[in-house]
Amino acid sequence: MPSTEPTTQIDHRYGDAEAVPTPWSTAQEHLAAAEVAWLSTVRPDGRPHVTPLLTVWLDGALHICTGEVEQKARNIAANPHVVLTTGTNALRGGLDLSVEGRAERVTDPERLQVLADAWEKKYGSEWHFEVRDGGFEGGHALALVFRIEPTTVFGFGKGPYSQTRWCFPGS
Fold first, then answer.
1. Mean pLDDT on 101-109
2. Contact 154, 8 (CB under 8 A)
């Protein structure tokens, strides 16, 4: 979890003159409530890869899981820098978020159990996972779990239009 609150800046070049920065607490609420996010990774040959997935916001970080042989897992192994985006497809209203960070694998069984419980609480029993072999077992192949602590987050408000940037210490 980030040790301190991020610095918050608004860029008036990309919004309405009366826009004010979106509070970080509002961004966190949106990250926690988002059902789907889009993960952007880079393949070893430099080509981008983007895929939708489920996320859990817990203790100041987004968490994802993916099969160990899936493209995104292979990309993270080669380059752990990722971007997660979520929001709405509406032109007016809502808040779109773009989270930059580094994916770090979670293998601690106690932490994995906390995350498995969080997945099921958020998404229901269809997303029940057993903790096994440093990951999640859910009826298919082993899923690796990653924590993505934000380094920089951009928030794009759409009523009024605004762009807020949150930078975390050490980023």
1. 98
2. no
**Residue 83 burial (CB count, 10 A):** 19
Query: Do 24 and 166 meet the contact criterion of CB atoms below 8 Å apart?
Result: yes
Span 60-87, average pLDDT? 96
Sign of CA dihedral 78, 58, 9, 84: positive
Residue at 87: amino acid letter: G
Helix (H, G, I), strand (E, B) or coil at 50: strand
CATH of the structural domain 23-155, one choice from 3.30.980.10, 2.30.110.10, 1.10.340.30, 3.30.70.260: 2.30.110.10
How high does pLDDT run on average in the chain?
Answer: 94
pLDDT class for 89, splitting at 50, 70, 90?
Answer: confident
